[in-house]
TrEMBL record:
Entry keyword Transcription regulation: no
Coiled-coil regions, chain positions: none
Gene that this polypeptide is encoded by: pqqD
A Pfam cross-reference name: PqqD
UniProt-recorded name of the protein: PqqA binding protein
Keywords per UniProt: PQQ biosynthesis
Keyword Repressor on entry: no
Protein species of origin: Cupriavidus laharis
Subunit description: Monomer. Interacts with PqqE.
Amino acid sequence: MTTHPPELARPVLHRTFRLQWEEAQQSWVLLYPEGMVTLNDSAAAILQRCDGGHTLDMLIDDLQAAFGVQGIAPEVHAFVKHATERGWLV
């Protein structure tokens, strides 16, 4: 198995998780067989872009353009690392 540097990784949601808007919660949630994780807006925006088609650098560029911000790479990297450790992303 080839390991890519983090910026070249193409994160994707693990198949056991589903990202969806939950009207009752008025927020994005991550559903899985054992329960649900309520996400803040930033986490949802990142996970929505984790489709396997974007490298991490592409995802960061897209977020910065969409929200008119710069310098968010450290926070995005930290969240993707956390989500990967939790098994949400592969």
